[in-house]
Design brief:
Helices cover about 15% and strands about 30% of the residues. The strands form four sheets. A three-stranded antiparallel beta sheet has the order 3-4-5, with no helix packed on it. A two-stranded parallel sheet has the order 1-9. The protein has a two-stranded antiparallel sheet with strand order 2-8. It is globular, with a radius of gyration of 16 Å.
């Protein structure tokens, strides 16, 4: 039986996503951010290796030595608001298992990279779990999918906040659980969230998935 999953490795990721406002971190702040990302990756590796809730198959967990990442590059880190839609429309998100789930079209996040502006759509899933009510879904695809990264796209965790200030850091981009285990059914990023350039930041593909 497939388990629907919008994987959230909470804690450090959400702390980094709600970091103090800073359009241009100074050298000391940059080193702090880099160290926090490294610590988050180490925590995630321990979770995958040791936790009973690890998504890894038993044979993969037994020989697991850590996930593979691109080098940390803060050029892939962006800050700004989410532009909320004036009226929230209910849409559906398709999952890898073929199932669908209703979600609100919450707004969009705009950023500039290499002189061009891009827009990513943000969704909010309905949930009865109080801990998940503030979670915002940002799934994206890019030109590395299927070669350097998981073919189904990657996620970045965001948490709704009253200041409407967000950090979209592709160094924190990660694979959904279905990249490790076919028992999971994971939300597919919407087609409009395809970035027409290679995002060489964050988690790389796991094995040959």
């Amino acid at each position: 039986m497939m388990t629907w999953q919008i994987p959230i490795f909470v804690g450090m990721a959400l702390f980094l996503a709600c970091a103090e406002k800073s359009d241009a971190p100074n050298p000391q702040e940059r080193q702090q951010i880099i160290q926090q990302i490294r610590e988050w990756r180490q925590q995630k590796d321990r979770f995958f290796k040791e936790s009973e809730n690890s998504p890894l198959l038993p044979e993969d967990r037994q020989k697991f030595q850590g996930l593979d990442y691109f080098p940390i590059d803060l050029a892939y880190r962006f800050e700004g608001p989410i532009i909320r839609y004036p009226s929230l429309e209910i849409d559906t998100i398709i999952a890898t298992g073929g199932d669908v789930r209703p979600a609100l079209r919450y707004g969009y996040f705009e950023f500039q990279f290499n002189g061009k502006r891009y827009r990513l759509q943000i969704y909010k899933f309905f949930s009865s779990d109080p801990e998940a009510t503030r979670h915002l879904f940002l799934g994206f695809t890019d030109e590395t999918n299927g070669r350097e990264t998981y073919g189904g796209g990657r996620y970045i965790d965001l948490e709704e906040n009253p200041e409407n200030h967000y950090v979209v850091d592709f160094n924190l981009a990660y694979n959904p659980y279905c990249a490790y285990n076919p028992a999971y059914s994971c939300a597919l990023p919407p087609a409009e969230n395809h970035l027409p350039f290679p995002v060489r930041a964050g988690e790389k593909k796991f094995k040959d998935h």
